[in-house]
């Protein structure tokens, strides 16, 4: 749930917490020009959070007389003061060409600086750079080290990555039990795709004992967490194992929800016809 606090409280909170918890930093209607002036005064006094907030707001508030260039300048000031999240944002600016000419080498440079200063998101981005040869020479070993550091730093996407690649590729050099442990941590943090990958591990016995019941519970949990793919899988399984009209109604509910969520599915009646079951 999105939380609304006194914006002055943001000045003492870490920027990654502000973003991950969904606080209205960028576009809250309640933020007046008067509050902007407070942030400007705090930034002038050296408050790093104020600098980043001003940069982020100038990136995202279309109603403000501001631009990506202004945002870049505030991130630059915060980065010069030692802010790792600001370094990551600078890398993103260079990657996307926001406020500066696009320069993937400079982007990788800033990601690495942010990573070396301890920012878990920057670690993930420099890992991707090494994985894909984006602004740096491709180096899978270096990429894995940074993904691992990012996951240890609490980045859920990196946790998923470390588990996902084992499940998809069955890489022999990967510690299966460790990959599953990362998926469990990401799942516990609410990451729907990780729940689905963990379900696959339980079904196939990859890094864990085969456990079909846990797999089924994980698929439902992933569907409830918003995964359209999990919704479709759950619908199909409920349909196949249906013992009553109530079960079929549940299957139809998840099927239609998957469709609304964007999953590429065929019409429910055609789906039922193909499966030899009565459409209701």
Can you characterise this structure?
The structure is a single chain. The relative contact order is 0.05. The longest helix is centred in the C-terminal third of the chain and has 16 residues. The N terminus and C terminus are likely disordered. The chain has 15 helices and no strands. It is mostly helical.
Secondary-structure blueprint of this entry?
Layout: H1 15-20, H2 33-44, H3 48-60, H4 68-80, H5 84-96, H6 104-116, H7 120-132, H8 140-152, H9 156-169, H10 176-188, H11 192-204, H12 212-224, H13 228-240, H14 245-260, H15 268-274
Helix pairs in contact: 2-3, 3-4, 4-5, 5-6, 6-7, 7-8, 8-9, 9-10, 9-11, 10-11, 11-12, 12-13, 13-14
Give a short synopsis of this structure.
With 280 residues, the chain is an all-alpha fold. It has helices at residues 15-20, 33-44, 48-60, 68-80, 84-96, 104-116, 120-132, 140-152, 156-169, 176-188, 192-204, 212-224, 228-240, 245-260, 268-274.
Descriptors:
15 helices; 0% strand; 66% helix; 280 residues
From the alpha-carbon coordinates, what is the Rg to the nearest angstrom? 23 Å
Mean pLDDT: 81
Share in β-strands: under 5%
Q: Helical percent range?
A: 55-70%
Distance between the termini: 36 Å
Question: Tell me about the biggest sheet?
Answer: none
Summed up, the helix count is: 15
What pattern of helices and strands is seen along the backbone? HHHHHHHHHHHHHHH
Query: What is the number of strand segments?
Result: 0
Anisotropy-based shape = globular
Query: Which secondary-structure class do the elements indicate?
Result: mainly alpha
Low-confidence stretches: 1-5, 17-30, 266-280
């Amino acid at each position: 749930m999105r939380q609304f606090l006194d914006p002055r409280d943001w000045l003492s909170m870490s920027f990654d917490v502000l973003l991950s918890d969904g606080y209205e930093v960028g576009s809250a209607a309640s933020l007046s020009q008067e509050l902007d002036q407070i942030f400007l005064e705090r930034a002038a006094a050296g408050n790093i959070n104020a600098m980043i907030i001003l940069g982020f707001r100038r990136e995202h508030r279309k109603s403000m007389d501001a631009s990506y260039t202004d945002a870049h300048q505030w991130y630059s000031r915060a980065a010069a003061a030692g802010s790792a999240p600001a370094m990551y944002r600078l890398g993103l600016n260079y990657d996307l060409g926001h406020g500066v000419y696009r320069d993937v080498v400079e982007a990788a440079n800033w990601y690495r600086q942010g990573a070396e200063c301890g920012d878990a998101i920057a670690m993930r981005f420099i890992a991707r750079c090494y994985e894909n040869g984006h602004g740096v020479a491709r180096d899978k070993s270096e990429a894995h080290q940074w993904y691992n550091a990012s996951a240890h730093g609490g980045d859920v996407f990196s946790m998923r990555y470390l588990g996902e690649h084992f499940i998809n590729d069955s890489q022999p050099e990967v510690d299966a039990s460790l990959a599953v442990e990362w998926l469990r941590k990401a799942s516990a943090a609410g990451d729907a795709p990780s729940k689905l990958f963990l379900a696959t591990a339980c079904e196939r016995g990859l890094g864990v004992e085969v456990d079909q019941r846990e797999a089924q519970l994980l698929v439902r949990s992933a569907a409830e967490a918003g995964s359209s793919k999990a919704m479709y899988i759950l619908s199909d399984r409920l349909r196949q194992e249906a013992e009553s009209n109530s079960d079929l109604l549940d299957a139809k509910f998840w099927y239609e929800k998957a469709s609304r969520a964007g999953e590429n599915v065929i019409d429910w009646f055609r789906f039922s016809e193909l499966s030899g079951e009565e459409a209701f």
